């Protein structure tokens, strides 16, 4: 067994398999695009069998948090030894994980402590048909090509803004929105999310979203707009001696 730092091109094929198997929006996928991550190759007798990745939990340059771990199916009996070796090679102190990540989550449960829930993850479940008279999305040009930004206008007044980000693993698009204080609790939030979902599907993408665990209103809004909780985004301390 060997675990060594490597280039993204070395592990690109395995990352494709990782994303295909999990079939989820992977929140930290963009780390590679922006060079925020270091990759490690896992080999047995020189044969590439898996990989892992780290980034910075607080500062991106620190590379102190494991966020990705994957082994090919025939070698998964060695998951725990490889994870221990990865921890040693990377000198990571933390793990960040989605609970719907079938590759890393078992290691997260086995080798971490002081777990915190950072966000609730949502996937689209069903179509809704809300109608609010004289209310519509208006597109706004953004300098960032990954940001499809809109305002929500009602009776000629802009009452909210939001959109979706495209810098996640295809085909997912990440929804964000905000309704101005004076117009909350009137159904505009769910209508906004509903209409953003339509725009996303028109682009051949799939809607996804997340919110803070304490944001009860946002959770209710997303649920009312046809989205369901599909996982949690978690972070924790890596045990100092994971080999035990």
Automatic annotation (TrEMBL):
InterPro entries: Acyl_CoA_acyltransferase, GNAT_dom. PROSITE patterns: GNAT. It holds the Pfam family Acetyltransf_3. This is GNAT family N-acetyltransferase. GO terms for molecular function: acyltransferase activity, transferring groups other than amino-acyl groups. Residues 106-244 form the N-acetyltransferase domain. It comes from Dawidia soli. It comes from the Bacteria.
